[in-house]
């Protein structure tokens, strides 16, 4: 609606009509009424109501992301052609749901707002039915579902809602749809009525008058027929016309609206002899001469078409995804043969009392493909509706008329709470309120609500229902004890045809449900209501509650023309660590036997979508995924099935002390000893390689080399190894060994077992305990054959309690399976634990690669060093073992940096909204200083930040960070701040420095007792303390002074788009261990040495700086050339030009220690070919000649080239002391002064050298 005074818009807005909130999609059904006074972003599809965000759902992968940010929504849709960063969402003026919300606008419910106009009183309107000035400034509002009207009082300038009130409560409305105030000041109202697509016989347009004093009469006009062939005899009726005050009324009928009264009878008859379109008007007048009118449109000469859908029948049953055949029968006396191209069939998805238009078809028959995903909740009140229409051709002066027929199709599972009506039959002995009641269910099979409080005689119904092709009805029912009988009747709960009877037993609880099936034999196939009447056993008291019902299934084909395929899906693994390869298997059949096609969606953007029944996919990132297979039959019916896959982060394996990750190139013999070591054992590519030699220690064959062992701990311990072995032949094997000697040991190995050619599938795990040369191998010593798909990379484990040992195996390192036997340690003297690989005699040798070995507890293990340069490709979770809300999708190690994407959320004050990826480690005791280099140049929105943090929890921390403070889209403002929070309260002081560049910046956070200070640098060398009032700012925080965690973090607050912050390194220096020694820089030259004290050409100088072991590390190296300015050293420096040169240099470490300046002096003397060159002109007759002479003054022969404007001369091998000479004929009498150029080339000191000379000559005139 519009406010004619301000132009403001009153708008009813809708959201998804889900009955309940969803953690994966967003809020429950929420609708709005908005007073729109300015352009803006009012939320859809990001936020609804008081800015409740929807979830960013990926329709391609069917995965849910995080909630949208209402303060800064981002449109990253691939279909977006407009803005990406959207304005903040303006909250709704009014919001509500299907059910009343006691906290927000409790007056409203229904979930179907219809915005109406604002009334503006006009004193100049003379109509007596105009609304009075009391209503001025009030907005009219309709609630479509609740059939109610409201007025919304606005403030003086009509920009805010003040209060709301029900109005016109004595009137009956049927879905008020649209409202406007007319020029007469009365309200005009359109009612939708009931039904779909115009099949609403009770819809209408009404005028709502304000009457002061004498009330007008009420006119009602009807006719027994409104169309037909001419002559058309019509009987009119004024039934329902009345005067509300009981005054006498008179009747005046004008059958053709020509202004002439044609009859004063209350119920006259009239024959229309001439074809045409008429409007019969009834005028009612009371004794006060106040009138009212009603009219009936009449079309004479044309008959409205009769439109029928057969099939499907009204109330027939289908399943979503099925195909339903329809046929439309149209009869029209005037048109005769029907043009089927003009028949239109509209499909609707019905939901509660409304419908969503879907596909539209033309023709008298066809097939409707129902939706596979309704887009609504599983337990919503959903159905299908088909509406067929046909508009005839008209007949002469009679206008065309439209006929319509419609049917409702019911889903084969009807949730019981969506009954049509409820009540109690006559003679029912129940004593409570008649009918059933809706309650919440906890049925393990599903459902959100059931019906209960059912006593004898209570019934519920579904309407319409048609049982054609339904052969059974199945109730999902429960009963605490007594049970009950359910009579299923068609048409009437008392006298209707008995379709069947269900006997519900006592199930032991009101929420202990089971299925109760009633088989049907020749059920009636007429359409109408179906009643379920519950009767008690004779022995049960009248006031006893009998049963609960969750849903009702209608079993059979129903109206389905082509049933959807039946689909199930299985996965060989539904949980595991990344990377997780999952093999999916589909079982599908088509009820009609049609051929099937397949399409997979693994729930990962950009992943392949195979079209095979079975498929495989490897999930590389941790997360929860939904894999969906969609199966389509040859006619297009669609079925689908899903399976959820949870991919976990690989377990952290921390290796130090006794454990080993086999890095480097040699085995650590301080940790390990080797039985019969030979050259075949090697360490390479991060693994210990032990070939499966053709040896054994089984029974008395004791010759296996390279058994790698260490003393086993006393007491309880666990040893695990990760190994890779492609075992295809008997008895290739590798794994763990507990070794006393060759005749007394235990082994847990992956072993090949094929004795007849290579067969990868025949592998097993084997656990044996050889005692005094007897291996004691029994059936339980070996697993079943693992199969070809079982991986070659496996995990084996021994668990010892100090007395006995058990063995275990795993394919993923997380989920271990125990071997069935337990073996004693006794008899293995001085046991050693380690690794073994062998193949037995005459079997192929292959490499067994041990990736790591771990033993716990480990008395020699220590924590990793705190410092991290973030080299490599993965975060070291042994060092960073205290992470908070870690999300691998928003964190990565790459390019020598830890990159963290800012995530929505904050921890400032009490606003703790769960930002992710606080990368933390346990802080050491005592005092220390943290340092990092942070690149936050990508940050651009208010309170996006990254930096150092000392963390207790979200309400107790100290953080020192780089952040941006500007609103999104504004000029970026950058700050470094130091903040401390205790118990959710931000502490003072709150020092910061503003107006910074994009960086990067170095940050230091220093702890002394419970005091923290911060310093920053733009170059890693010169540091500036954060201050307040000119002094170093100290923040106190006793909550995190001890037993805290430290590290780096990012926060995105209410960001619109995530940004990446890069951390170059992290360093922790304990107090007393600070770096106080400057780095040392060395300079080298290329060539390495001068020739007789001088370099003969350009010299390359390379500088290399190193800090002491355990030092802070080199921050920068600088150099200056020949007294020039200091320059950052980034690459070798080239020094050129003959003469003396000096390169000075120095380095600075990250602790700020500056090395004393060093100097490198060098001389460059380029060798030359020594020549004496002369040039002179002379006259011979009238011709001028130029004579050029070059004498070789050097020690080696030279090639001399004489170059003039009059020609060139080359003389080779000119010996020392000899000359090259040429007299050049200028061929002219006059020569201007000029110069000749002479080059000499010779090999000097093993290098070819060329030197150039110029020789001037005088002008000559020879005329």
Automatic annotation (TrEMBL):
Signal peptide: none annotated. It holds the Pfam family PKD_4. NCBIfam families: barrel_OmpL47. Residues 17-26 have a biased composition (Polar residues). Residues 217-298, 565-647 form the PKD domain. This is DUF1349 domain-containing protein. Gene3D superfamilies: 2.60.120.200, 3.30.1920.20, Galactose-binding domain-like, Immunoglobulins, TolB, C-terminal domain. One of its GO terms (molecular function) is carbohydrate binding. Keywords: Signal. CDD domains: CBM6_xylanase-like, PKD. Residues 1-26, 1076-1095 are annotated as: Disordered. Residues 412-555 form the CBM6 domain. It comes from the Bacteria. Residues 1078-1091 have a biased composition (Low complexity). One of its GO terms (biological process) is carbohydrate metabolic process. PANTHER family: PROTEIN TOLB, PROTEIN TOLB HOMOLOG.
């Amino acid at each position: 609606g519009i406010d004619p005074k301000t132009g403001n818009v009153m708008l009813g807005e809708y959201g998804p009509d889900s009955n309940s909130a969803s953690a994966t999609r967003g809020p429950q059904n929420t609708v709005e009424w908005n007073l729109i006074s300015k352009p803006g972003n009012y939320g859809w599809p990001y936020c609804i109501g008081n800015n409740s965000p929807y979830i960013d759902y990926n329709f391609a992968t069917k995965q849910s992301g995080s909630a949208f940010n209402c303060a800064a929504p981002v449109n990253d849709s691939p279909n977006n052609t407009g803005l990406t960063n959207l304005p903040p969402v303006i909250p709704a003026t009014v919001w509500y749901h299907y059910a009343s919300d006691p906290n927000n606008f409790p007056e409203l419910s229904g979930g179907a707002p219809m915005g109406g106009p604002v009334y503006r009183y006009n004193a100049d309107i003379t109509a007596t039915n105009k609304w009075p000035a009391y209503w001025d400034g009030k907005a009219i509002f309709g609630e479509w579902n609740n059939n109610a009207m409201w007025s919304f009082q606005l403030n003086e300038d009509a920009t805010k809602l003040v209060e709301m009130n029900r109005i016109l409560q004595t009137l009956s409305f049927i879905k008020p749809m649209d409202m406007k105030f007319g020029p007469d000041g009365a309200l005009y109202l359109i009612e939708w009525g009931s039904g779909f697509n115009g099949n609403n016989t009770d819809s209408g347009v009404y005028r709502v008058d304000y009457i002061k004093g004498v009330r007008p009469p009420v006119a009602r006009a009807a006719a027994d027929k409104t169309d037909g062939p001419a002559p058309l005899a019509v009987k009119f009726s004024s039934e329902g016309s009345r005067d509300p005050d009981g005054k006498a009324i008179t009747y005046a009928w004008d059958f053709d609206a020509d202004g002439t009264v044609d009859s004063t009878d209350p119920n006259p008859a009239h024959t229309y002899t001439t074809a045409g379109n008429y409007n019969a008007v009834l005028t009612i007048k009371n004794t006060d001469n106040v009138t009212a009118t009603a009219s009936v449109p009449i079309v004479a000469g044309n008959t409205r078409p009769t439109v029928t859908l057969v099939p499907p029948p009204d109330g027939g049953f289908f399943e979503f995804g099925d195909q339903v055949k329809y046929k439309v029968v149209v009869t029209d006396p005037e048109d005769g043969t029907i043009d089927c191209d003009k028949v239109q069939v509209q499909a609707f998805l019905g939901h509660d009392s409304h419908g969503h238009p879907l596909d539209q078809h033309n023709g008298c028959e066809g097939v409707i493909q129902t939706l596979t995903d309704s887009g609504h909740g599983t337990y919503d009140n959903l159905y299908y509706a088909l509406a067929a229409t046909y508009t005839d051709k008209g007949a002469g002066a009679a206008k065309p008329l439209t006929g319509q027929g419609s049917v409702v199709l019911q889903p084969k599972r009807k949730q019981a709470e969506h009954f049509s009506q409820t009540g109690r039959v006559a003679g029912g002995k129940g004593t409570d309120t008649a009918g059933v009641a809706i309650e919440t269910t906890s049925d393990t099979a599903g459902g959100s609500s059931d019906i209960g409080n059912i006593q004898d005689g209570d019934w519920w119904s579904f309407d319409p229902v048609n049982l054609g092709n339904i052969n059974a009805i199945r109730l999902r029912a429960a009963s605490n004890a007594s049970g009950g009988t359910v009579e299923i009747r068609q048409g009437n709960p008392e006298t209707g045809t008995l379709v069947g009877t269900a006997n519900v037993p006592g199930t032991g609880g009101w929420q202990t449900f089971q299925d109760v099936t009633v088989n049907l034999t020749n059920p009636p196939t007429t359409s109408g209501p179906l009643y379920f009447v519950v009767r008690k056993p004779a022995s049960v008291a009248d006031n006893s509650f009998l049963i609960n019902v969750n849903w009702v299934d209608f079993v059979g084909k129903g109206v389905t023309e082509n049933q959807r395929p039946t689909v199930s899906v299985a996965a060989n693994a539904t949980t595991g660590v990344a990377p997780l390869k999952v093999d999916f298997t589909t079982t599908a059949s088509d009820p009609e036997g049609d051929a099937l096609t397949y399409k997979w969606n693994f729930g990962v953007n950009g992943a392949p979508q195979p079209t095979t029944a079975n498929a495989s996919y490897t999930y590389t990132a941790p997360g929860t995924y939904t894999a969906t297979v969609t199966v389509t039959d040859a006619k297009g019916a669609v079925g689908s099935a899903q399976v959820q896959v949870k991919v976990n982060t690989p377990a952290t394996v921390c290796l130090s002390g006794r454990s080993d990750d086999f890095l480097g190139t040699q085995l650590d013999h301080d940790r390990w000893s080797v039985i019969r070591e030979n050259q075949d054992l090697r360490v390479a590519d991060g693994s210990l390689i032990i070939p499966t030699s053709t040896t054994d220690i089984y029974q008395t064959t004791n010759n296996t080399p390279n058994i790698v062992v260490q003393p086993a701990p006393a007491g309880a311990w666990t040893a695990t190894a990760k190994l890779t072995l492609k075992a295809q032949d008997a008895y290739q094997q590798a794994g763990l060994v507990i070794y006393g000697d060759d005749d007394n040991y235990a082994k847990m190995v992956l072993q090949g077992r094929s004795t007849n050619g290579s067969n990868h599938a025949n592998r097993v795990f084997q656990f044996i305990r050889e005692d005094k040369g007897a291996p004691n191998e029994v059936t339980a010593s070996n697993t079943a054959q693992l199969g070809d798909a079982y991986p070659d990379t496996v995990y084996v484990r021994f668990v010892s309690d100090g007395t006995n040992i058990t063995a275990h195996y795993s394919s993923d390192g997380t989920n271990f399976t125990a071997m069935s036997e337990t073996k004693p340690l006794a008899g293995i003297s001085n046991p050693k634990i380690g690794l073994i690989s062998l193949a037995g005699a005459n079997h192929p040798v292959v490499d067994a690669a041990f990736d790591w070995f771990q033993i716990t507890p480990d008395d020699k293990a220590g924590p990793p060093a705190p410092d991290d340069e973030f080299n490599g490709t993965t975060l070291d979770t042994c060092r960073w073992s205290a992470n908070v809300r870690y999300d691998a999708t928003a964190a990565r190690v790459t390019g020598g940096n830890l990159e963290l994407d800012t995530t929505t959320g904050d921890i400032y004050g009490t606003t703790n909204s769960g930002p992710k990826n606080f990368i933390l480690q346990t802080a050491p005791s005592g005092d220390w200083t943290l340092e990092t280099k942070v690149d936050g140049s990508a940050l651009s929105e208010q309170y996006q930040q990254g930096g150092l943090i000392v963390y207790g929890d979200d309400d107790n921390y100290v953080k020192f960070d780089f952040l941006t403070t500007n609103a999104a889209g504004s000029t970026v403002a950058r700050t470094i701040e130091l903040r401390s929070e205790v118990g959710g309260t931000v502490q003072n002081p709150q020092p910061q420095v503003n107006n910074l560049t994009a960086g990067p910046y170095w940050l230091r956070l220093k702890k002394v007792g419970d005091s923290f200070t911060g310093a920053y640098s733009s170059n890693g060398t010169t540091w500036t303390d954060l201050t307040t009032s000119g002094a170093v700012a100290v923040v106190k925080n006793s909550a995190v002074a001890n037993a805290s965690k430290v590290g780096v973090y990012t926060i995105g607050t209410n960001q619109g788009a995530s940004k990446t912050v890069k951390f170059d390194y992290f360093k922790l220096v304990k107090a007393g261990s600070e770096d106080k020694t400057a780095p040392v820089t060395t300079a080298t030259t290329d060539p390495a040495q001068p020739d007789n004290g001088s370099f003969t050409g350009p010299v390359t100088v390379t500088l290399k700086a190193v800090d002491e072991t355990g030092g802070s590390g080199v921050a920068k190296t600088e150099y200056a050339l020949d007294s020039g300015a200091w320059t950052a050293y980034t690459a070798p420096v080239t020094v050129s030009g003959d003469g003396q040169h000096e390169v000075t240099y120095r380095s600075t470490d990250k602790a700020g220690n500056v090395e004393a300046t060093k100097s490198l002096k060098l001389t460059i003397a380029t060798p030359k070919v020594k020549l004496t060159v002369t040039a002179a002109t002379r006259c011979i007759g009238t011709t001028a000649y130029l004579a050029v002479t070059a004498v070789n003054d050097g020690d080696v022969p030279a090639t001399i080239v004489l170059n003039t404007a009059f020609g060139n001369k080359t003389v080779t091998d000119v010996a020392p002391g000899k000359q090259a000479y040429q007299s050049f004929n200028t061929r002219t009498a006059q020569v201007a002064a000029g110069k000749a150029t002479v080059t000499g080339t010779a090999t000097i000191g093993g290098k070819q050298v060329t030197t150039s000379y110029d020789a001037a000559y005088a002008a000559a005139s020879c005329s």
